[in-house]
Each structure stands twice: as structure tokens, then as C-alpha cells.
Design brief:
The chain has three helices and three strands; from the N terminus they run E-H-H-E-H-E. By secondary structure, it is of the alpha+beta class. It has a single domain, classed as Ribosomal Protein L30, Chain: A. The chain has a three-stranded antiparallel beta sheet with strand order 2-1-3. Helix 1 crosses helix 2. The chain is rod-shaped and about 90 Å long. The chain starts with 26 loop residues before the first strand and ends with a strand. The relative contact order is 0.24.
Length: 99
Amino acid sequence: MAAKLQTTPVVEHISFPSEMFADDRPWKVVVWNDPINLMTYVTWVFQRLFGYSLEKAQELMMEVHTKGKAVVTSGEREKAELDAYRLHEYGLWATIEQD
């Protein structure tokens, strides 16, 4: 009959840099230019969804039109995803990316 070996488990603690898990950089919502939506419609969507003044909405719309894209909101990831989803519902092309 063989004797039973008793071993003590080795508990190894691994520490990771906190920045690996706590990336608190904000997420931004980018609206891209498209050949379909009218500039007045895009302005209206920005006003309706985000409560921007006519001047601010037109400024963002012109940035989309002339530069091809504009950052329209930013914040936590869940908020950015929701904002992009809402823009999609209005037929605008939007993506999110981390700042």
C-alpha cells in the first residue's frame, strides 16, 4: 500500500497595474458625413437628441459636412453607446471611440 502524499497548495498573488482595469478615458460619439441626409435634417437631429441650440447644432453639422466627421457627445461608454444608437435610429452614421 502506497503512502498518501500531502501537499500544501501554493497561493500566488499577482498584482496588476491599476491602469489595466481602470481606464477612465471618456468615450466620444462621432457622426460621419453621408451623401443622404440633408444638412437641415442633421441640424434638427442634433437639436432634438442633445438639446443643442440652433447655432451649436449648425456648427457641428458644418464640421461633419466640411471635415467629414464631428464629435457630438462624450462620456461613459454606456452613454456613448446609447447616443450612437439613437443617432442610428434617425439614420445618421455614428460610431464611438475612446478619447
